[in-house]
Fold this sequence. Notes:
Layout: E1 10-13, E2 33-38, E3 56-62, E4 74-75, E5 86-87, E6 100-113, E7 116-122, E8 131-137, H1 140-143, E9 162-165, H2 167-174, H3 179-191, E10 205-212, E11 215-222, E12 225-233
Amino acid sequence: METYQLSPIGYIRSPYKQKFAIPRQPRLVPDAKARLEFCPEFSREEFVRGINEFSHLWVIFRFHETVDKGFSALVRPPRLGGNEKKGVFATRATFRPNGIGMSAVKLESVEYKNGKLALILSGIDLLDGTPVLDIKPYLPYSDSLENASAGFADTRPQTDMTVVFSSEAVEDLRKIKNGEQFQRFIEQVLLQDPRPAYKANREPTQHYGMSLDEYNIKWRVEENINTVLEVKKIAQM
């Protein structure tokens, strides 16, 4: 069997510090922004000359936190409630033979400062520290197929969740720079219902926590209502 050695061209700096809160597909959380910081050997403007003519990019990356766990021929897609198995090649599951993923994301801007190159992206679904293997422009005339069908994932995922913020959480957000934007980001994440599918209906009241950017967010789920209880800065060690 032939083998190939791939090296990252850069790494993602993302507000998602853990897999738990990451949306299951790109662009489901429009306010999710990240930086693609290029490795030194690719940190030259020539590599991205003309890229700002494109609104969206394909990002090809490595599932670095799961690749060492191996792969499975059958997986349980969240869209099916985790109750039905499908072949891994019929899904976008992370447990793949080569651990490679791809996401179509929006290009917000290009940064080049002090010899360091970065792309600002939005609508991302990537964990902080994700190694990027390649990027390619998104081409609407060929990449968007009008009559395509998508089997069990044929429609955008919808939930009946709502999000409210406690008075303490609102006060916490007032102390944060760009707090209104961060509140909108939190809301978009929770509207996707990041809970594992098998936990969704187990208990009438559930409490959760997640790390977004530099903050720990705690919230309560009762039926279809998410109540954000607090937004606290994570203490630096």
